[in-house]
Amino acid sequence: MPDYGVDTPSWVPLPWSWAVERLTANRNFWVVTVSADGRPHALPVWGVWDDEDERFAFSCSPRARKARNLAANPRTVIMIDDTVECLSVEGWAAPLQEEKRQARWIERYLAKYRPISPGISADFLHQHLMVEVQPERAFAIIEREEEFSTRATRWVFGT
Fold first, then answer.
1. What is the pTM of this model?
2. DSSP annotation string for 52-99
3. What is the largest CA-CA distance in the chain?
4. Which helix H or strand E contains 40, and what residues bound it?
5. Looking at per-residue confidence, does 83 or 19 come out higher?
6. What is the predicted pLDDT for the residue at 148?
């Protein structure tokens, strides 16, 4: 972002641990998908980040627009719900087919969300899609004037 002063000597990238803290603790995530005809769609979901796998997963109805969009176009963006310390992750999403992997994500999901929604069950999640997002790159920016041009950061995965 050289037009915003990010290429100045005072620029210091945010550490990946900053992003992991937000991806792990965040409750609601925005998921952006695009239909086959190019129509964007954004809605919040609950989701789980696993830093060892470097993957994100969320659950949705198999009939949801986001599921239909991802079937036609697997590119997606997920974002935390903070508009000051902003973080977005671009990548590829697909419903999990492998039962073992799906079960691991469901365990992670329940560990995170059962304390705030005790009625959520593995059976409920098995009736829906568990979608895994493989990140390609992530972007962070802090929307405070004193940090805006000195903290904007991009991470690239799989390089």
1. 0.91
2. TTTEEEEEE-TTSHHHHHHHH--EEEEEES-SSEEEEEEEEEEE---H
3. 53
4. strand 40-50
5. 19
6. 67
Q: What is the dihedral of CA 115, 121, 122, 125, to 10 degrees?
A: -100
Which tokens sit at 137? 């790159």
The pLDDT of residue 2 is above 70:
no
Which residue type, as a one-letter code, is found at position 20? V
- Contacts of residue 46, defined as CB under 8 A and 6 or more positions apart, other chains included, come to 27, 28, 29, 58, 59, 109, 112, 113
Reported as a single tens digit per residue, the pLDDT across 33-49 is 999 999 999 999 999 99
Euclidean distance between CA atoms 25 and 48, whole angstroms: 9
CA distance 7 to 43: 34
Q: Could you give all domains of the chain from N- to C-terminal order, each with its CATH number? A: 2-152 (2.30.110.10)
